[in-house]
Recover the amino acids of this structure.
């Protein structure tokens, strides 16, 4: 028993980040989010070849948004009740099946069904994958979530880049061609990595009372409000950056898309940088800094355009804006998990799905503002939403260290008992038993 206790003692030390496991999740997240960006990218081809109206095409995007984001908390609730590690590869296969069907659908009804299938796959993926990322990150949860978020950003940016030449070469069937690597990866994940992920997965725990859970729904609701406001900023920048460059600065379409591409690259860099910083500084302060910078830079871009700044100068401001506004992405997810420590799936479903999608619904209103008053006021409006996110973030309470420590100790105790039982030792000899 003494030997067993000696062997399990190191588990009481801070757990390192499992780089191999996080690497597999980064790739899985990239393939998953690629599905979401492919749908908007093929709309011009669907309109031209299937003779869809703009309203019908927009309805496809809306159905994808609802299926992929609004029902994410439901999957989070389910995974909080029951460990389902196989949901990660299954969701990947489901989402990619929907994308393949988009290129094969003979009618609008089948197109709608295909987008729903793709959306449901994405909704099922995120909560369980975020739970796995949380478990695999050890004591560096913000860093791990930063890598996880980076995978999503890479996939989202890669989708249009890959699908456009494929469709130009072989037609709409090209969606099936670019999904082959993702399908193979999902099968590899299921066959060779599933046991390892299942072993790492923390089983749901039973609690005698709500107070024992330590879940804080009030702060989580305030954080959700912050994420919604921040999401409006993100969608606004991504939507109106190229339009602003063309309409206000006289840039060509190629130049405008180049500015957007550089902004997306900067945003992805901000995600991983914010994750690393989130393990070293107060996560609430990082959110406030990120949103304060976004508010200031949005106004600066509008003022610089009015002062006849060059395209290069405005592009640099957009790039810095993309980087700074995304510093808070992974941090908000981890903070949501901190506020709901026993409902990580639900927290992930809201912070990764529902709250973010709500920002997209504000785009028609910003577009209407641009139609009526020009695109410069849109930049000011984006700054106002960033300011609203900043104000909401200032009221976020600190995370209780005692609750976090208690939770971490509980997890370590469970792992220690598992090791001791595997060695044939007496569980009573394990510290904390």
């Amino acid at each position: 028993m003494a030997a067993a206790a000696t062997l399990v003692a190191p588990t009481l030390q801070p757990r390192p980040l499992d780089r191999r496991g996080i690497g597999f999740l980064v790739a899985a997240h990239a393939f998953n989010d690629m599905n979401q960006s492919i749908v908007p990218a093929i709309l011009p081809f669907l309109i031209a070849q299937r003779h869809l109206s703009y309203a019908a095409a927009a309805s496809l995007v809306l159905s994808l948004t609802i299926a992929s984001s609004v029902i994410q908390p439901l999957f989070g609730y389910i995974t909080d009740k029951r460990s389902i590690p196989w949901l990660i590869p299954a969701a990947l296969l489901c989402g990619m099946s929907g994308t393949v069907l988009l290129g094969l659908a003979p009618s609008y009804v089948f197109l709608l069904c295909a987008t729903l299938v793709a959306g449901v796959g994405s909704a099922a993926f995120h909560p369980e994958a975020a739970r796995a990322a949380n478990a695999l990150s050890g004591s560096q949860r913000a860093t791990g979530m930063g890598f996880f978020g980076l995978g999503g950003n890479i996939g989202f940016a890669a989708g249009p880049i890959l699908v456009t030449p494929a469709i130009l070469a072989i037609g709409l069937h090209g969606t099936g061609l670019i999904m082959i690597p993702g399908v193979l990866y999902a099968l590899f994940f299921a066959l060779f990595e599933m046991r390892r992920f299942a072993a790492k997965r923390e089983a749901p725990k039973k609690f005698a009372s709500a107070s024992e859970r330590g879940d804080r729904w009030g702060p989580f609701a305030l954080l959700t409000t912050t994420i919604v406001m921040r999401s409006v900023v993100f969608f606004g920048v991504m939507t109106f950056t190229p339009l602003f460059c063309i309409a206000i600065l006289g840039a060509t379409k190629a130049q405008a898309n180049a500015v957007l591409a550089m902004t997306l690259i900067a945003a992805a860099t901000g995600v991983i940088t914010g994750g690393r910083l989130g393990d070293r500084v107060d996560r609430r302060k990082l959110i406030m800094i990120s949103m304060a910078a976004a508010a200031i830079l949005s106004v600066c871009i509008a003022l610089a355009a009015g002062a006849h700044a060059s395209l290069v100068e405005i592009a640099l401001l957009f790039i810095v804006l993309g980087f700074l506004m995304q510093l808070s992405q992974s941090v908000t997810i981890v903070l949501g998990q901190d506020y709901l420590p026993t409902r990580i799936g639900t927290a992930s479903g809201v912070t990764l799905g529902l709250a973010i999608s709500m920002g997209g619904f504000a785009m028609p209103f910003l577009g209407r503002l641009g139609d009526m008053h020009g695109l410069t006021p849109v930049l000011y409006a984006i700054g106002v939403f960033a300011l609203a996110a900043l104000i909401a973030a200032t009221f976020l309470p600190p995370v209780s260290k005692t609750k976090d420590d208690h939770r971490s100790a509980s997890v370590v105790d469970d792992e220690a008992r598992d090791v001791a039982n595997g060695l044939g030792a007496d569980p009573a000899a394990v510290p904390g038993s």
Notes: The chain has two domains: 17-203, 216-402. The two ends are 13 Å apart (CA to CA). The CA atoms of residues 153 and 268 lie 6 Å apart.
